[in-house]
Design goal:
The chain is an alpha/beta fold. It has one domain: Undecaprenyl pyrophosphate synthetase (3-Layer(aba) Sandwich). Helix content is 42%, strand content 15%. The chain contains 7 helices and 6 strands. Helix 1 crosses helix 2. The longest helix is centred in the middle third of the chain and has 24 residues. The chain is globular and about 60 Å long. Homodimer. One of its GO terms (biological process) is polyprenol biosynthetic process. One of its GO terms (molecular function) is magnesium ion binding. Its cofactor is Mg(2+).
Length: 241
Amino acid sequence: MVPVRPKLPRHVAVIMDGNGRWATAKGLPRSQGHRAGADAIDRLMDASLSIGLENVSLYAFSTENWRRPITEIRSIFDLLVEYIESRLEPIAEKGIRILHSGSRKRLSAKVLSKIDKAVEVTRKNRNLTVNFCLNYGSQEELLSAFGKLLEDRQKKRIGRGKPVSAKELEKYLYTYSLPPVDLLIRTAGEQRLSNFLLWQSAYAELFFCDTLWPEFDRKSLESALDWFAGRTRKFGGLENE
């Protein structure tokens, strides 16, 4: 039985690291590691639904991942297309809403059509929101958001001479519909943010674990949530204020 937790994070972000190392350790091609990682996403979604989480963001492919060998990139996007085609119906039936955060540039028409279909088919679902951060980089997101903000100001002839507020800028972020990240989990022993949701994670609790992503399961998630429940979050103030 899952223990009753005094508090749950409204938004959990996950850097899914370790697919390649998992495959290499087993003498398998890296593509098999990514396939095993997709199965771990299924487990995470089911566990999140059962526990009662509201929003989960997953770092699926970063803007820096384009530096990887073209064969690996192709296998990742082929797997993405296959994943959506095979999982979209059960995901929708479970009441999961799919979102996409990231640049649409460099993504093929086929990949974009699959992503758009997943977002459209699940847009009314409210049991859990899963935000796939694909072709995502936080610095790119912030530069893009600021550029669009200034462009809109010029077009609408508003806000000239006024400083940009955080609230105004946030309207242009990919994640505008989501609350700030409360808990950020990174697997596989690495302890860095890697350009992931930097603005959104300003006051996130950071949980690092050695578990490789393909081995991440409900017990792993519960360990992170139990750790989060024991944290005192002061947001720059004092505990008893």
